[in-house]
Amino acid sequence: MSDFVEVDILVIGAGRGYDSFWTQWMVGTAEFSDQEMSRPPDEDLYKEFFKAKHTTKYLESYIDTHKYDGKTLRDRIQFSVEVRSVSKKDGYWTVLASDRGNEQQQHTFKTPKLIVASGLTSIPNMPSLPGKESFEGQILHHEDFGSSDVLTSPKQNITILGAGKSSADMVYEAVKAGKQVSWVLKATNTTGPGFFVSPDGKGPYKNAFEISLTRIAATFTPSFLNGMNRWTKLLHSSEYGVKMMKGFWGTVDADARKSANFQRKCLQNFDKLEPSSPLFWQNCAAGLLNHADFFDIVAKNVRIFVGDIEDLKSNSLLLKTGEEIPSDAILCGTGWVPSLQYFTQAQCQEFGLPHILDHEEAKDEHAHWANLEAEADLQVLATFPQLQSPPDHYQKTATHTPYRLYRHMVPISESSSSEKDDRSIVFLGQIVVGNYFPTLECQSLWAVAYLDGKLDLPSKKEQEKDVALFTAWSRRRYLSNGQEGNNLTFDFIGYIDTLLKDLGLTSHRKGWFKDLFAAMWAKDLRGLQAELWKKFEYNDTVKLV
User: Fold this and answer.
1) Which keywords does this chain's UniProt record carry (predicted)?
2) 380 in any annotated domain
């Protein structure tokens, strides 16, 4: 059975969460500019961070209160649908999909313009677990942690896999629930333990996240997105500045390690949680701590193992080290896989999405980009000499090309003219950033102007040079974590400024002093939509009704 629907917007998603998990963002920043989030109660706040359930509540409210052409955003959402393929013919994109869990129930969506916003955390990455058929307990990904009974079950032995923030959150909650917790870190093919740092702020800033929302803090990382001026050249291109920045980041790194006290007395192997590379390089997972007692709890109550999995038995996990870990449940904080699998390799090559490196039809393309990136790499090292000598580190083997989307959103255009180009597809949220709310809001404004042909782009050659420069910089700046060409961990303020500069929008600016030293709040973006409407002469019919 199949149905056919013509749509102007298709949103596909699923909810997940756990009441005791906390956000990595603070009150006043985790919201869109046109609707303020209600302040959570004090018991759900920690240094202005808050329990993630309030973000879920906010988004639920947002889709019910925003109505366009007589329909709310909730009315427009098709839940529990999985896309199978995307194609374009005769000026229309056709999206073939089916119900989750029932592939026989198929749907066809047709639209002249397509926005792909499936993000980076839609499909769980489940590890290979030899012998899982004989394991009698639960095996869950972090995605399903909130909907499971694993913490209320009478079974006691919980084993957590993974080295990132999601694993750390599950470890903490399992200990607090009275479980016997084992935390397993991979021994090979890994960037090592995550870097978890104190959320404490300095001076007038309430927490570390607020500091990261300032443009002055953004200039302390070497990035083309912050613009090259006397200040950034002093910090990152001069011998004195490079030494100063090395000292600054070295102090931040040392303070974080000292606070964790990895050499303390512990239950088992707490020292194995110490990150193997400096914080500056972000070559491992990282996050802000949401609990003041996190390291104390882990050191006293968690058995930590470093080893690769050999086998699962009925009630235990066997490592290649020979260690056997009693396990009633295995929780996987093992990340995510790309959510763009409904595009063919040929489409990925055409759009600038990651595709297999040894794809036969892409050999000429690979050679072309290799030349561009080699030239760009010379520019990166000439501008940021500190990136020339990274520490010893694990480097993942590249199997796919990096993202090659212009402005991290759209295929590189054959022409700068909107009349000659096919401006009918945009990819939102395919980047790693510190705060998705303002980033996606600004991406959306840019995307609207692009899709409507109101945005002038540089030539194809200039677009390619821009993409190649970012790719080369990303590999140097974020090492293994930068090889996909979409890492903006410390750089989203500069990215937002770049998008708004493209659009010629200025209403978010607050004067030179506040622009530099004040954090970027959601409310600062409140005038951008009206400014865009006026600048590009949109009429009232597209406004909120």
Assistant:
1) FAD, Flavoprotein, Oxidoreductase
2) no
Instruction: Enumerate residues 6+ apart whose C-beta is below 8 A from 473.
Output: 223, 224, 376, 380, 384, 387
CATH of the domain at 322: 3.50.50.60
Distance CA 404, CA 121 (A): 19
Instruction: Measure the CA angle with vertex 521, ends 519 and 527; round to 5°.
Output: 125
- Chain-centroid distance of CA 417 in Å reads 31
> Is residue 115 included in any domain, yes or no?
no
Tell me, yes or no, whether 41 lies in a domain.
Answer: no
- What pLDDT, on the 0 to 100 scale, is given for residue 414? 80
What residues contact residue 48 under an 8 Å CB cut-off, 6+ apart? 26, 27, 28, 206, 207, 210
AA letter at 16:
R
Tokens at 341, concatenated? 């699998």
**Tokens found for residue 75:** 């009315």
172-207 pLDDT, tens digit each: 999 999 999 999 999 999 999 999 999 999 999 999
What pLDDT shows up at residue 12?
A: 44
Report phi then psi at 315, rounded to 5: -135, 30
**Domains held by the chain: number:** 1
Please state, rounded to an integer, the average pLDDT across all residues of the chain: 92
Predicted TM-score of the model (pTM) = 0.93
Range of the domain at 297: 124-336
Write out the two tokens for 74: 């909730």
116: nearest Cα among 466, 421, 447, 531: 447
Least confident of 246-255, 393-402, 415-424: 415-424
Judged by DSSP in three states, 506 sits in coil
CA distances to 41, 207, 216, 345 from 49, rounded to whole Å, are 11, 9, 22, 41
Question: 3-state DSSP call for residue 112?
Answer: coil
Contacts of 102 (CB under 8 A, 6+ apart): none
pLDDT average, residue stretch 294-299: 98
Is the pLDDT confidence value at 17 over 80? no
CA–CA separation, 270 vs 261, rounded Å? 9
Q: Place 421 in a pLDDT band, splitting at 50, 70 and 90.
A: confident
pLDDT exceeds cutoff 70 at 543? no
Q: Give the single-character DSSP code of 400.
A: B
Q: Return all residues near 303 (Cβ < 8 A) that are at least 6 apart.
A: 181, 182, 183, 267, 268, 269, 325
Q: Quick one: pLDDT at residue 360?
A: 67
